[in-house]
């Protein structure tokens, strides 16, 4: 997958590299010309010199929106270090062509290129969390995947590139002139295996580079196997200057075969004119051996894959969902397991090898794979299990406690329960002093495993950990063993003698785990007589067997429903619960039922739909949920806008700088969601949006009421209104040209869809929306955040408003700060 990148860096090992100069597309050194190419084109310029700016600011985990360079760009104070060095220090590439310095993990890197003319180019970069190109933010390549290709317009004259601190503290970067203005790139394919005997076409995805300033629409991809079969698919539109991972169909093979096939891909327009062609390898296998499958995600209509260690033999089988550790591909996770004669084992991706720590979109990926695998393999519903290693051990704790009725048993291996308190230098303690941090912290409560661990009461638990693990300390699971011992009747614990973090495939494929699984099954609702359900929000976790939480009193604070059946009575105690449901029919009780709830008694019958609501301190039955209010299928939390086949809509009104910024701001989020979550999001201008065309889909608006035409369609009656001069919140008005906001609000024409907003007042305000740390599996984002541009420098002291809408989506309970 990294072939093109390696070619582009083929001679960077020379320690004489800094003596090169560039003319046109030809690199000249020692009087000799050499053309350096990538798979996508010719290298115009290699960056060999620059400046770096060390920083000593600690980043928090739940809140980390500070960036001094972003602040400088927002308020117009950025100065090219070549003109005014300040605290910037000179740096050159090392002998292997990499910018590397001991302080680089917490530093910014600046490079520049003086272009003789204006032209469209591609920035090929590895390292650095994000990249600014002439002040515009783009996603970087902080995991060194080698995927990052950013089409942009080179200015005539000086072009500035700033790379923000990266995970590994190293950066490589080139400017590339693409061989075509529209072309395939084979970096980062998502491919299924062609399965012998299966007649359906399979989903796949490949990236297409749009190095033009026009939208690409009505594209068609034709896939031709070397065995002769063909499939054609009208694929996704691509916004200007963007690389999108688009869908296509892989044809089914007519004849059985095991091995590698060649597949030719042809990109054409709707008239049939060929735009580009490429050839890629694809595997054909029988379904009886380890293999990969694909599906289309409901998050963004993108293609995702999962891996399978199929069960031996025929007939209905159990299902084991395995969730991988950091940097591990699902295909490698599945191959760590030997095939079983009683269970299908499937490995989800978390959307990437690092992904989202199995929270947020990683959580959704796990649930989508679980549902897909149940459908494909027709597994035994009551025999569904969950296991994982390292980050996947955390995923096992998190998913198991969050969805207690989905798994008969769980087995966390080499695990830690809570990502926010695991590791060092998390930095959140520095934010606890600020009142504005409280709603941010609350909005991430769904990841606090130890606060909801009692949900595991009906779930078997097997804990496996090496007693010499130097990556995840044994203390992490010894604490969980102690907590489980206070209430849990069915758990096993084993410390592997001398076991490091990984001590072979039996670190996950541990025989006693699977023997333990065999003895567990998910009980029927009627057999569950006691429930102690805990959740931080019904938007993430609403159901525990026959109880469903629909609405909280305090959003994202922990809720508890403790219920016990005694003959014809159901005794219930609640905390932070406003509306909940009881699935009485599934309990198979006879005759009149008495519900004793918080010292109040209600009577009902088992065939009646039992929805209970708290009104004026008293519980009462209601006939249905008011879907205009917050309820389980539509809650707050800004991050939840990025789901439900979301579409990004950017402003085309206002000044030229507004148009350019908001288009790029939407592009930046799409780049980040692609990189971190293997995503593929529709990004459109506001003049193309209509309520009917994008019916029931989530929408994220980039821009305000002054410049985004979609605002009136979606938000004209919202209690928060933003224009270029002020932000109105209910009956309060915040004035200023440097205010920014993220907020989420329901689509009034839908019972389930949400609208997210990324907007600011004037130029400084819109640029203050730089941080997109909401596309992360750990950070906390409440319903509303309004802040000054200085937050990018100073942090939470410059937060003006944060918090949650109340249950009818009004602003009464939002927090305002000086």
TrEMBL record:
It comes from Flavobacterium gilvum. Gene3D superfamilies: alpha/beta hydrolase (3.40.50.1820). Keywords: Hydrolase, Signal. One of its GO terms (molecular function) is serine-type peptidase activity. This is Alpha/beta hydrolase. Residues 357-511 form the Peptidase S9 prolyl oligopeptidase catalytic domain. Coiled coil: none annotated. The lineage of its organism: Bacteria, Pseudomonadati, Bacteroidota, Flavobacteriia, Flavobacteriales. InterPro entries: AB_hydrolase_fold, Peptidase_S9_cat, Plant_Biomass_Hydrol_Est. GO terms for biological process: proteolysis. Pfam families: Peptidase_S9.
């Amino acid at each position: 997958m990294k072939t093109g990148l390696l070619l582009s860096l083929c001679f960077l090992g020379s320690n004489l590299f800094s003596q090169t100069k560039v003319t046109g597309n030809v690199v000249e050194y020692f009087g000799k010309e050499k053309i350096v190419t990538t798979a996508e084109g010719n290298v115009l310029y290699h960056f060999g010199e620059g400046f770096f700016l060390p920083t000593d600011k600690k980043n928090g985990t739940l809140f980390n929106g500070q960036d001094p360079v972003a602040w400088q760009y927002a308020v117009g104070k950025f100065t090219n270090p070549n003109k005014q060095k300040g605290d910037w220090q000179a740096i050159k590439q090392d002998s292997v062509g990499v910018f590397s310095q001991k302080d680089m993990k917490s530093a910014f890197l600046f490079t520049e290129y003086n272009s003789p003319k204006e032209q469209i180019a591609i920035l090929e970069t590895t390292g650095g969390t994000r990249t600014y190109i002439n002040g515009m933010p783009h996603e970087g390549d902080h995991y060194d995947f080698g995927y990052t290709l950013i089409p942009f317009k080179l200015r005539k004259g000086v072009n500035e590139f700033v790379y923000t601190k990266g995970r590994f503290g190293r950066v490589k970067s080139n400017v590339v002139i693409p061989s075509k203005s529209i072309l395939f790139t084979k970096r980062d394919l998502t491919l299924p295996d062609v399965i012998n005997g299966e007649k359906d076409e399979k989903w796949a995805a490949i990236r297409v580079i749009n190095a033009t300033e026009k939208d690409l629409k009505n594209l068609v991809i034709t896939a031709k196997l070397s065995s002769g079969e063909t499939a054609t698919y009208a694929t996704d539109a691509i916004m200007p200057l963007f690389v999108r991972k688009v869908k296509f169909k892989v044809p089914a093979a007519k004849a059985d075969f095991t091995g590698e096939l060649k597949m030719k891909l042809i990109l054409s327009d709707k008239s049939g004119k060929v735009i580009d062609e490429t050839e890629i390898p694809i595997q054909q296998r029988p379904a009886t051996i380890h293999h990969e499958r694909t599906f289309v995600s409901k998050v963004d209509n993108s293609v995702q894959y999962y891996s399978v260690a199929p069960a031996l033999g025929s007939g209905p089988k159990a299902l084991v969902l395995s969730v991988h550790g950091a940097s591990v591909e699902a295909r490698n996770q599945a191959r760590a397991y030997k095939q079983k004669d009683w269970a299908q084992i499937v490995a989800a991706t978390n959307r990437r090898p690092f992904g989202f720590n199995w929270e947020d979109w990683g959580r959704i990926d796990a649930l989508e794979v679980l549902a897909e695998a149940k459908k494909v393999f027709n597994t035994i519903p009551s025999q569904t299990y969950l296991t994982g290693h390292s980050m996947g051990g955390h995923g096992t704790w998190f998913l198991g406690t969050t969805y207690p009725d989905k798994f008969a048993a769980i087995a966390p291996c080499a695990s830690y329960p809570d990502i926010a308190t695991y590791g060092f230098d998390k930095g959140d303690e520095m934010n606890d002093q600020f009142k504005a941090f409280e709603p941010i912290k609350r909005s991430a409560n769904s990841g606090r495993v130890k606060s909801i661990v009692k949900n595991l009461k009906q779930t078997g638990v097997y804990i496996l950990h090496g007693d010499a693990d130097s990556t995840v300390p044994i203390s992490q699971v010894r604490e969980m063993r102690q907590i489980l011992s206070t209430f849990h009747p069915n758990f096993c614990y084993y410390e592997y003698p001398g076991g490091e973090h990984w001590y072979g495939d039996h670190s996950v494929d541990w025989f006693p785990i699977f023997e333990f699984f065999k003895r567990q099954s998910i009980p029927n609702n009627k057999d569950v007589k006691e429930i102690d359900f805990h959740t931080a929000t019904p938007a993430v976790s609403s159901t525990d067997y026959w109880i469903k939480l629909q609405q909280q009193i305090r959003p994202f604070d922990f809720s508890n429903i403790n219920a016990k059946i005694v003959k014809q009575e159901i005794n219930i105690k609640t905390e932070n619960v406003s509306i909940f449901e009881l699935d009485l029919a599934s309990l198979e009780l006879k005759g009149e039922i008495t519900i004793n709830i918080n010292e109040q008694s209600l009577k009902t019958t088992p065939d009646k739909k039992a929805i209970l609501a708290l009104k004026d301190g008293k519980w009462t039955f209601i006939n249905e949920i008011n879907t205009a209010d917050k309820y389980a299928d539509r809650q707050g939390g800004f991050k939840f806008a990025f789901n439900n086949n979301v579409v990004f809509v950017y402003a085309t009104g206002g000044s030229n700088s507004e148009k350019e910024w908001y288009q790029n701001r939407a592009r930046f989020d799409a780049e980040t969601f692609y990189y971190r979550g293997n995503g593929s999001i529709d990004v459109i201008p506001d003049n193309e949006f209509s309520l009917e065309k994008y019916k029931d889909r989530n929408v994220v608006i980039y821009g305000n009421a002054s410049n985004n035409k979609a605002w009136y369609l979606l938000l004209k009656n919202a209690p928060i209104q933003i224009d270029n001069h002020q932000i109105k919140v209910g009956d309060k008005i915040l004035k200023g040209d440097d205010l920014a906001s993220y907020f989420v609000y329901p689509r009034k024409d839908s019972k389930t869809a949400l609208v997210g907003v990324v907007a600011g007042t004037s130029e400084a305000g819109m640029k203050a929306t730089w941080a997109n740390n909401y596309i992360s599996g750990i950070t906390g984002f409440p319903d509303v955040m309004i802040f000054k541009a200085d937050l990018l420098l100073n942090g939470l002291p410059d937060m003006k408003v944060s918090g949650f809408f109340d249950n009818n989506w009004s602003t009464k309970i939002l927090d305002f700060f000086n």
